[in-house]
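A note on notation is needed here, since sequence and fold are reported together in a single record. The reader may check this reading against the record printed directly beneath this paragraph.
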Amino acid sequence: MQEYEASKFNMSSMRAGVSVREIKHNKNGLRIFKLRINKGDRLLFTFDTMRIRPEYRQSIIFLDYCHHDDQAMQGRTIGLHSQDVLEYEPIEERIELEIDQRYADFDYDPNRVITRVMDVQTMAQLLDDREDRAVYYLNDEQFACLKEQDAPTFIFGSAGSGKTTINIHKAFILATQPMNIGYFTYSNYLVEDAKKLFHKIIEQSPEYRADDLIRRVNFHPLNEYMSATINQYNVVTYEQFRTWIIERQPLLLRQLDLPIYDIWKEIRGLIKGMIPKEWLTYRVNIHQKKIPMDLVDVLIQKGLAKRSGDDLQLQAEKLYAAKARFLDAYETRAILLMHELLDEYLLTHPMIDENIYYALDEQYCVYSRQSREWLYELTLRYQAFLQETGLLDENDLAREFLKKVSQKEMALFDFVIADEIQDLTEIQIYCLIRLAKNKNQLLFSGDINQTIRPTYFHTGRIESLLKTSNTHLGFIKHQLIKNYRSTKEVVDLANQVVDLRVEHLGRQKKHDYHEVAVREAKHSIYYFNPAQPKEVMRLLETAIQRHYVAIVVPNEAEKRNFQQLTQLKGAIFTVEEIKGIEKDYIICYNVMSYYHKEWERILTTDVKYQNQYRYYFNLLYVALTRARHHLCFIEERVPSLLFEYFRPHFLMFEAFDEAELKLNQISTDNEFYKEAKRYEAHELYEQAILEYERSNLAGADQDVKRCRALMLNKEGHHLEAGHALMQLKAYELAAKCYRQAQNQLLYLKARVFSDIPFQTLKAEFEQEGIDLVSFVYDREEPISWVKRFNRLYMKYVFEQMKGINRMIDTIEKMKG
C-alpha cells in the first residue's frame, strides 16, 4: 500500500522489490493481481475498478489471501516481513497456474461482500490486535439512504445490516455544512461506538477541519441528555423497580402472578409510555384559550370542529385527513391548537387514563380486565412512591424534558438522528421529534423484529406521532435486507422464523421480509439432545471456558434456574442482555422451551393478527442473530411442531465432541480480559466480573471491584457506589454516582479529584444557581479535601492575574 501511494497510484511504476503478477483471462473482466509473500502464499488484490464509487477509485482492494495448502483458498492473516526478489521455482509456477485457474471466475461486487475501508496505519493496527476499527464501504442499498430528502426518513434494517454505519455517514455528510446535529441512542455503549466510527471517518477525510466536524455533531444517550437538561440525574432503573415491587407490593405481585419484567414492560411501555392521541377528546374552552371567533366559525363550517356552549371540540381525524391536501390558515391554526392540547395532556398526566387503558384491544394489551385493574393500581402506587421520594422514571424524565421544549427553554437541532428507535417509548420518541427545528430533518433507524424491550414499539404509531407534530404525511422508508453479521445458515434460520410468523400471525408488509446473507460458511447450526444431562453439562462447562461463546436464556427466571445448575454467576445472558452484543458462537438454552405453552397456542390455534404473540418470534430472532458463525440449541420442552419445523437446519448431537461442535479453540487470558472490557461497556457487570476473574491478569482485581461498585449504583445504592469508586480512584465514575445521589458536595469532591479545571466546575454550579467559592468556603464545618480544591482555584486565579497584568501593561504602553 505504501509503495502504491509512493508511486502516485501507478502500479507499473512501483519499485522492483515488489513481486506482482496478474491473473490471466478473468471471465468477469476483473484485473486481479498476485503479490508474492513467500513460496506458497499470495495476496490477491485489484485496483482502479469501476465497481466502486469514484471517491474510492485510487484504492487497492484486497480480495483474498491464498495459501497453497488451503484447498478452499480461505483468507489468512500473516505479517509481511520481506520484499526480496526471488527466482521462481517450478513448484511456484504450479501454484501460480492453480491460482489463475481458481480465480478465472472470481468477481468482486461491493453489494455482496463486506468491504472495510482503511489506511496503512489502521491495517497495521488490525494485524497487531485484531480490533475491528475499520470503516465499512457502503453498498448501493446503504448508500441510497444518504440521499438528501425534504422529508423525515426511517431506515428499517435487519440485525447486522449496517444501520448504525449509515447513520454515522449521514452525520458526517451533514457536519460538512454549518449545522447543529443531534445524534441519540438509548445506551451509552452505542453512543461510544458511534463516536469512534465518526472520528475514524474524519481521520480518513483530511480535506475537512476535524474540529469543525466534531463540534457540529452532538452524541448523546437520550436519558443522559434529558437528565442534564432538567438537572435531574436519579432515574429509576429496572433493578430499583424490581426491589420496590418485591419489598413493598408483595400482595399485588402474587395476585398478578406475572414475571416482574412483564409488569415493568406494561408500565414503562404502555401505561406510562404510550401517547393516547387517538383516544383523547380535544375539547377546549373558547374564552380561556382566547380562540378567535372567526376561527371557531370556519372550523364548524368545514366540519372540523363542534361547539357545545363555550367549549369547542376539534375533530382530530378530520384534521389529520386535511393534511393530505393544502392546509389553509384556519386549518393550520387548528392543528397547532390540537398539538398544544396534546402537550398539555402529556404534561399533566403521568400515565394514560384508566378508562383508556381498560378499553385497549388485544393489539395493545393482552391482559384480562381484572389483571388490568391490578396493573393500573400498581402503577398508581409506583407513581406515588416516585413522588414521595422525589425520583423519576424514564417516562417522567421525558415529560419534564418535554416541558422545557414546549416552553422554548432550550435550543433545538437542525437535524436529529436516532438509532435503535425500537428501544424507546412513544413519549421518548415524541421528544426526539420535537427536538428538530424542521420536522422533515429527522433520520430514525430501527427494527421492529428486535423489539423485546418494554416499549410496545410500532412504526405505524410512530408515523402517526410524526403527523401530529408537523404537516408531513409520513416517513420516506428504506429497507435494508443484507445481513453482514451472520453466516448464511444462521440467516436462513432467521428467515424461517419470519416465514413461521407470517404463516400464523399474518403478513405485515413493512416488516416481514427475507434477509440476504453476505457471509458464507459450512454447517454451523447444531441441536444438542438434552436427554443426556451429563453430556449437556460437559458442553456447557466447556462453553463457559470459551471467550467467544455466549450462553443465552429467554429471561431472568430461566437465568436463575441455570445459575443454580452451574453454581456460577455471570456465565449466562438473557436475550435482553445479549441484544447489543454479537458473538462468534451462541448457545440458546430453552429459548423456545420456556414459552412452550405460548408456542403451542400459536401453532395449534387461530392467532391471526394478534400482535402480542410477535414477542416470542422476536425473542427467538434476537437470540439466534447474535451469532456470527456458530449456533447451538439445547431445548428441554420444545413443542414438537416447532422442533420439526426447524429440524432441517440442525446438525444433531447426542454426545459432546469438542472438535465436532467447534469448541476446541482455547481462550487466552488477554481474550477474557478484552471480553470483560466489552461487557463492562455494555453495563453487563456480572458477566464482566467473571471474565475479569478468568483473565488472571495483574490488576484485574481492581476491575472487578469497579464493576461491583457499578452494580451497586445500578441497583440504586448511589452513595455506596460513589464511595467505593473514590477508593479505586475512579473519580469520574464516582462523580456520576454522587450526582445521582443528589449530593452536591461529594459530586464536587469527585470532580476536584479528577482535576477538572476550576472554570468548568464554576460554570456547572452556576447553572444550578450556586456560587462555587461560597459553596466551598462558607461552610460551618471545614472540608477535609479543601487543599485539593485550593490548588485548582489558585491556578485559575493565577491565570486571571496574568490576564489582568497584560491589560495593565497594555494600558501603560498606551499612556507612554
Remarks:
- The chain is about 50% helix and 15% strand.
- The longest helix spans residues 786-815.
- Residues 70-88, 128-133 have pLDDT under 50 and may be disordered.
- Residues 2-135 form one domain.
